[in-house]
Write a structure and sequence with these properties.
- By secondary structure, the protein is α+β, with helices and mostly antiparallel strands.
- Helix content is 47%, strand content 13%.
- It is built from 23 helices and 13 strands.
- Strands 8, 9, 10, 11, 12 and 13 form a six-stranded antiparallel beta sheet that branches. Strands 1-2-3-4 form a four-stranded antiparallel beta sheet.
- α6 packs antiparallel against α9, α11 crosses α12 and α13 packs parallel to α15.
- The N and C termini lie far apart (77 Å).
- About 1% of the residues have low confidence.
- This is DUF4132 domain-containing protein.
Length: 566
């Protein structure tokens, strides 16, 4: 493409091939690259915001009109206009060609993508350029993109409308109101626009999103014709990628349901791989974990009642009058299968939310940065939890509820407390009849014994126990431990380690075990690894934080107790 020098410079800035500094989101590469052109003054940089320092003055804009019109014309002539419409919209803003560009793209892009372009056309050139830098398909999106989009004029409103439009379209496809074509539910540019809309809504945890996502995710995962194809595999996986960045329990449930419903052979496997990355990411979103049911959930289903209780373990039980049933009633399964599935998903989600809180309990925080506990102030569940506040460096004080402002805060764990303090808090919880969302004050505590201190790097407290192997495997999965399957066939291993990553990825617990016979295993030692410079290194038991040691040993005690015997 032969262009004049200024038009070529403009193209290089937009494509990122120019060697200019990036200051996103404070100033666009475009304004930095053209500062001073046409006699625009260059302010002194000391103390002046980048957005002001590199603002394009009117003389610069006038100089750029002709080369921008030249570039827009060339881009519309070759095939790039369908690939990079946002780039064309940036140049169109300088060229004064918004109407022409909009008319061209309206006939080539899907309605959702056109609606997004309409939002962009309402912005100045600087905002358009920053948006293009952030969404260019050849570079990873910058951190904080979703939050930045939420501050742009009109974009939050577009996000909701886009997802409503997408959900309505797949509902119409499922109802045979729109003819079905495999992978054709969304037009050019719509997948990326939907992905940005989902990321923004998930990041903001919009209350209107769960219902829309349920319709959209299920709708794109299943063909209405009974075929093994999908309305849009691309949009399904784009939503899953958005969930990796901004997970909520509801989007996890929707993706799980899509994996079960789809008839495509490869989609469930791909979704399962993606969900393995989504679920641990929930540990950094403690605020969504506090959507735990506040007390038992009861729902009438036909002539029976479903009860979800979360007193100690999360359980779904079925009742007929005052009689608790051992299994789901056959009539309920036959007549209300979708409701049974929804209740089971709620149980999984509640377990997941509780697991998020417990991960925070293990080490005082859930990740490398402090959890957003302050966002939870005023939530009724927080007032029933015990918190610790760092009232001076290294000095933590326990209080009921988020009562101490403007200091570091973490969840109280009895393994860090003296015995008399634990007893006192148990009296408070019992005396005030507090229903805690998980066992905190009365949590079982496992402390290092003198023998374990002397042993160095391994504990034999639960070693040499014969356990039912398949039950042990099921408990590993339930509690977040991973282990290879042991077997006696050729090439299989007879010994192995079950591992669980804890404390926001900084510690790992190990339980060794070996196969005893076809149905049984024998437990071995428990050890701990610390993450050091990107690798795991065995650590002395005396170095393991008390909550991490206690939570790991609590799990192992459960494994042995619940799977023992022949």
């Amino acid at each position: 493409m032969h262009l004049s020098p200024l038009a070529q410079r403009l193209l290089n800035l937009l494509t990122g091939t120019a060697n200019d500094p990036t200051h996103w989101p404070d100033a666009s590469r475009l304004s930095v690259g053209f500062v001073g052109l046409g006699g625009s003054p260059i302010p002194d940089g000391d103390g002046i915001p980048l957005s002001v320092r590199y603002a394009l003055g009117e003389p610069t804009r006038q100089v750029l009109v002709a080369p921008a019109r030249e570039l827009v014309g060339r881009l519309l002539e070759d095939g790039r206009r369908s690939d990079d419409p946002v780039m064309v919209v940036v140049a169109a803003g300088l060229a004064g060609m918004d109407a022409e560009v909009r008319a061209r793209f309206a006939g080539e892009r899907g309605p959702i993508a056109v609606a997004e372009l309409d939002v962009l056309l309402g912005w100045d050139v600087e905002r358009r350029s920053l948006f293009w830098e952030a969404v260019r398909p050849d570079v990873p999106p910058p951190p904080g993109l979703a939050a930045w989009l939420g501050g742009l004029p009109g974009y939050p409103e577009f996000a909701r409308t886009a997802l409503e439009t997408a959900a309505a379209r797949v509902a119409a496809i499922q109802a045979d109101e729109i003819p079905y074509e495999a992978e054709k539910a969304f037009g050019s540019g719509e997948k990326a626009a939907i992905g940005r809309a989902v990321r923004l809504a998930l990041m903001r945890d919009e209350p209107w999103l769960p219902g829309l996502l349920d319709t959209l995710v299920r709708g794109v995962a299943v063909a209405p014709t009974g075929a093994g194809t999908l309305p849009s595999q691309a949009v399904l996986f784009e939503i899953a990628r958005a969930a990796e960045e901004h997970p909520t329990p509801e989007v996890v449930s929707a993706l799980r349901a899509a994996g079960r419903a789809t008839r495509h052979a490869g989609v469930p496997r791909q979704l399962a791989r993606m969900l393995k990355r989504v679920e641990p990411a929930l540990a950094d979103r403690l605020e969504v974990a506090f959507r735990l049911p506040d007390g038992p959930v009861r729902q009438t289903v036909g002539e029976h009642t479903a009860v979800i209780s979360a007193d100690d373990e999360v359980e779904l039980s079925w009742w007929h009058g005052d009689r608790k049933l051992k299994t789901v009633p056959v009539a309920v399964t036959r007549e209300h299968p979708e409701e049974v599935g929804r209740l089971r998903e709620l149980v999984k989600r509640t377990r997941q939310q509780r697991a998020t809180l417990v991960r925070a309990l293990e080490a005082g925080c859930a990740g490398t940065s402090a959890p957003p506990y302050r966002l939870l102030e005023g939530h009724p569940i927080t007032d029933r939890l015990i918190w610790e506040f760092e009232v001076s460096p290294g000095v933590w004080r326990a209080e009921l509820g988020l009562t101490v402002p403007d200091v570091p805060v973490r969840l109280w764990h009895p393994a860090r407390a003296r015995a008399e303090e634990v007893r006192a808090w148990r009296e408070v919880v019992r005396g005030e009849e507090l229903r805690q969302p998980f066992k905190q004050a009365f949590r079982e505590v496992y402390l290092l014994t003198p023998a374990e201190e002397a042993s160095g790097v391994s504990s034999h407290r639960f070693a040499e126990q014969v356990v039912r192997y398949r039950r042990l495997r099921a408990l590993f999965e339930e509690r977040g431990w991973t282990s290879a399957f042991l077997g006696a066939w050729d090439g299989a291993e007879l010994d192995g380690d079950a591992r669980r990553v804890m404390a926001g990825g900084r510690w790992r617990a190990r339980l060794s075990h070996h196969l005893y016979d076809e149905d049984h295993a024998i437990t071995g030692e428990v050890g701990f690894d610390r993450l050091v410079e990107g690798g795991w290194r065995a650590a002395p038991l005396t170095d393991v934080p008390a909550p991490v040691f206690s939570e790991a040993m609590r799990d192992v005690d459960l494994f042995v107790a619940a799977s023992s015997g022949r």
